[in-house]
Amino acid sequence: MTVVAPTVPLVVDLDGTLLRTDLLYETGMAFVRQHPFGFFKALGWLLKGKAPLKQGLAEATDIDVTVLPYEPVVIQLIKTERSKGRTIILATASHCSLAERIAKHLQLFDQVWASDGKKNLSSDRKRDLLVEQYGEQGFDYLGNSHDDIAVWCSARQAHIVNPDAGVENLARAQGNVVQVIRLNRWRLHDWSKALRFHQWVKNALIFIPLLASHQIMNVGLLWQDTLAFLFFGLCASSVYLLNDLLDLADDRHHQLKRHRPFAAGRLPLKTGILVFPLFLIGSYAGALLWLPWEFAAVLAVYYALTLAYSLSLKRKMAIDVVALALLYTLRIIAGAAATSLALTFWMLAFSMFMFLSLALVKRYAELNEARQKGHTEKTKGRGYYPADLEMISSLGAASGYLSVMVLALYIHDYATSERYAHPQVIWLACPMLLFWITRVWLLTHQGQMHDDPVVFAIKDKVSLVLAVMFGLVFWVAA
Question: pTM of the predicted model, to two decimals?
Answer without folding.
Answer: 0.88
